[in-house]
Amino acid sequence: MLKCRTVWKKLAPLARASSTLCRQNVRRTALNNGRTPAYVSAAHMSSGPAGGGRANQMYVLLVGAACVGGGVYTYRTVKGDGQRYQERIEEISSRPNKTQASYIQTEPPAVEATETEAVPEPEPEAAPSSGEPSPPAADVEAVIPTETTEAPPETSEAPPAEEPVVEVPPEEAAEPPAAPVVEEEPSAAEPVVEAPPEEAAEPPAAPVVEEAEPFAPSEPPPAELTEPPAAVEESEPTAAAAAAEPAEPQPEAVAESGDSAAASLKVPSHAPYLLIGGGTASFAAARSIRARDPGAKVLIVTEEPDAPYMRPPLSKELWFSDDPSVTETLRFKQWNGKERSIFFQPPSFYITAEELSSAENGGVAILTNRKVVHMDVRGNKIKLDDDTEISYDKCLIATGGVPRNLQVIERAGEEVMQKTTLFRKIEDFKELDKVSRNVKSITIIGGGFLGSELACALGRRSSEFDLEVIQMYPEKGNMGKVLPEYLSNWTTEKVKSEGVKIISEALVKSVVSKDDQLEIQLKDGRLVKTDHIVAAVGLEPNVDLAKSAGLEVDSDFGGFRVNAELQARSNIWVAGDAACFYDIRLGRRRVEHHDHAVVSGRLAGENMTGANKPYWHQSMFWSDLGPDVGYEAIGIVDSSLPTVGVFAKATAKDTPRAATELSGTGIRSESETEDTATSPVASSTPAPSGSHKDEYGKGVIFYLRDKVVVGIILWNVFNRMPIARKIIKDGEEHSDLNEVAKLFNIHDD
């Protein structure tokens, strides 16, 4: 075709000139009846007499010959390509028979049957070879006796030559570069099927395993990342054989997850939806993503060894279980008597990481015991602590927080730290449960939600295990930073009645280990001796990724600073304890409670699938001081704000136990977050007289800022949170909050 084009470029001017000359001659012939004109036009290019036709015919013949020649050349080229293509297809279809013939020459009949079944599946996908199936077979016979000496210098061809089982890699060595990627995937899985019979039947197979090791780093990645289904399906039948024979080739190591090197090979290289953190927010986001995008492929990366679970029962219901094996089963009876697990879903809900990229209907996979140490925002990828990189399309950061510790304890030395628990995870619950059964004294430092809950839980064990439980905090009463002083004092008495010794207005000066005990020296001179310390002094948001990712951290509240849609970047969202978000009603905030993790995670998941919804939900939180006293709160609840409390006498149904019996769930926020309040009806029952002024059985506490309600606590009043949320959302001034309290029906018996 190139020759035709060159010829045409040279003849085109002549063709155009001859065409013009022909038209002029025809015109003159028609006008003059064939007589020769008296003059010759300046446009004529012929050297002969004007009107001569021989030159014109020659030009036309040249042009026609060039066109015909180009057409013939094109036809022959297309026909030749078709013939070569047909020959390649025929050669490909004939290769399995040739491969079987070569196997028959090198393998015993016992292995031959299984190989014949495994080989034909990948073969049709490969590019054709140059007809060399039989020479590799001869090479195999020649190389086997000297495999240990010839394998190192030839890394591309030696491993297949050493293994009589795998005949395909030598053929692939002569094929185009694109074909080996597809061809080697099945070959990586084939040794998993074939190697155990060889090792059992043939003693010389042992050296093959030794030589397969150097080939391991290059083989598994394509098999895992490009075509996971073939690798998984073919490796599963040999799981039992793998356990019995530790000296298998590298594909066997891919199927096992015993060591970190093998486990790293199972990590997918790409995840459309990547969730960093394995807590409540991540699980809520994964569930939301799958609800809006049923085929979504979600990967959760968590530092913990467990699947996502609920944290509140770790300091509440689990401590009141009668099951001695509760630390193993992690199942508990709710206040309503129903049993459930702390895990959101059973293991069967999740798929393995290597199955994620090949799952037709998508799914949720979890990488446990993995930490993200670096985040490349521009490259849309992360790096794990084992240097594995994973790219993503959209990413959620839900890293939660890390329990704070007192500096005096950190400076006290290793011996003191070993006897200190920072309560946060399942392992912390198991450790504290074991400690409470083996020591005589435990001191809880902190008077907030977690400290007060653990104090009540351990106080219940004080009589059974002869355990002294001490709670100390710098405030005047329990939850002094949240509750108004009168209610804090009442709560303190309630905690004391559970068997807890209270030390208020306590500031720790130093902690030392002496005579196998810990001595806590307070700044006012008091000395407390104990066997173990539980530090419950707050949570520090985990923002380790902020530096590498270039994300903004809020200087006032901590956490990743995000917009109303919980976005930190165009394809990065943050949810849960680590998110510092803008509340359209209360301003910028950061919340560390279960309900916020559920709601923010769910919203982030929706926005990751294109919802673009702003965060407007007022999340709630709750705390139970045993099965008989509990409260729910919403908004800004700060004891430094002015408050108005309206109380009534409690009844048998005004307890956390009764609330769960009504809602049917131990995690009250799971049911209430879906409800909305439209037009609550106030109770017509008049408010009680002042005879119960010291009886805080149940009630409503309003927190005010500029005469507007910004926070509400429902004290032993349950399933009324939508009403409280609507009051805060309206943002109106109320002249008589006693009338507003009637909306919660606290005076009904």
How would you portray this structure in words?
This protein is α/β, with parallel strands linked by helices. Among the domains are: about 270-310 and about 345-400 and about 540-610, 3-Layer(bba) Sandwich (FAD/NAD(P)-binding domain), CATH 3.50.50.60; about 405-540, 3-Layer(bba) Sandwich (FAD/NAD(P)-binding domain), CATH 3.50.50.60; about 620-745, Enolase-like, domain 1, CATH 3.30.390. The protein is about 40% helix and about 20% strand. The chain contains 29 helices and 28 strands. Strands 1, 2, 5, 6, 7, 8, 20 and 21 form an eight-stranded mixed beta sheet that branches. Strands 10-17-11-12-13 form a five-stranded parallel beta sheet. It has a five-stranded antiparallel beta sheet with strand order 24-25-28-27-26. Strand 1 (about 270-275), helix 15 (about 280-290) and strand 2 (about 295-300) form a beta-alpha-beta unit. Helix 3 (about 110-120) packs antiparallel against helix 8 (about 180-200) and helix 8 runs parallel beside helix 11 (about 230-235). It starts with a helix and ends in an 8-residue tail after the last helix.
Q: What is the CATH topology assignment of one domain?
A: FAD/NAD(P)-binding domain
Radius of gyration: 40 Å
Q: Which oligomerization state do the chains in this entry correspond to?
A: single chain
Which ranges are low-confidence, i.e. pLDDT below 50, for 5 or more consecutive residues?
A: 34-51, 97-264, 669-693
Largest sheet: 8 strands, mixed
